[in-house]
Amino acid sequence: MNLPRLCNNLSMLPALAVLAAALCFATTGTAQALAGVDASPVAVGAARIVVGGGILGLLALARRRPTSPPRAAARRGSTAVLIAVGALGVLAYQPLFFLGARENGVAIGTVVALGSAPIATGIVDAIRSRRLPSGRWMLATAIALAGVVLVSGVTGGAVALAPGGLLASAGAGMSYALYTVCDKALFERGWNSTRVMGTVFGVAAVASLPVLLAAGTSWLLTPNGLGLALWLGVVTTAVAYLLFGWGLARLTAVTVSTLTLAEPLGATLLGLLVLQEQLSAVSAVGLALIAMGLAVVSAPSRRREEVPDATAPA
């Protein structure tokens, strides 16, 4: 048996888990296009979190461990802050993303939101850990972001951009950074991935319920509407974030943020295969760049980038 090769293969598993999560995320647009439901983006986004966050919350409750000895009040308080900020990030991402897409178009809104997410994560994580991201991560992220821009098709011609939309899209990227870094901080306190994802998304699900009721629920009574809510909740949220959390527990937050740039790659491929969309030569180059950046950031290196997770399994 080749032990070094086996170790390298095992070290790839967290990256593969995050890539699989990103591919689950990538089905969101195709699922909505196929469902064709008459519902606002806010209603769809809230239903997604209510269903998916509720499932994750119930899983966390089912796997709850016996209460540990009381900790210092300050530590308990800071943990509550991490949960609250993480849940706020989950809640804010959807409406900010959809607002940015509405103001400046889906392509530009997606590029700004997805492109700002790893950058914001790098900044927030650097402030928290007092450590700059590695040069390898910066190179891989730059390559992948260039690919995202090319795939989006926003490179052709001048476009009048709405400042409010740009702020909303950038806010979506910052929201992603907040819940990613908060989740990582909870992992470092000995929480396992099921508990972290269940707690943060469970809180977000409870807070999303009144949003869903206010946005309208009649579309959920149709077969397509119910099917869409279940797909988005079960696959793109519950399954996706279990995979995401398992990978995040073992990788740095900045690495995970770059790996999730596989989402536009997967969404583009689904558009080609399922929705019969056309692929331009520029977009093809963009897909290749995204794949190259993901390969660079996920390839095993001599200096292990994974963070030990000896506290608990997923």
Structural overview:
- The structure is a single chain.
- This protein is mostly helical.
- The protein has one domain (17-64, 71-298).
- The protein is 76% helix and 0% strand.
- It has eleven helices and no strands.
- Helix 3 packs antiparallel against helix 6 (163-187) and helix 4 (106-129) packs antiparallel against helix 9.
- The protein is globular and about 55 Å long.
- The relative contact order is 0.21.
N-end to C-end Cα span: 28 Å
Share in β-strands: under 5%
If helices are DSSP runs of H or I spanning 4 or more residues, what is the number of helices?
Answer: 11
Task: Give start-end ranges of low-pLDDT stretches.
Answer: 303-314
User: Biggest β-sheet: count, sense, barrel?
Assistant: none
N-to-C order of helices and strands: HHHHHHHHHHH
User: How many beta strands in the DSSP annotation?
Assistant: 0
Radius of gyration over C-alpha positions, nearest whole angstrom: 19 Å
User: Fraction of residues in helices?
Assistant: over 70%
- Average pLDDT metric: 82
Report the principal-axis shape. globular
Derived structural class? mainly alpha
How many structural units, i.e. domains? Answer: 1
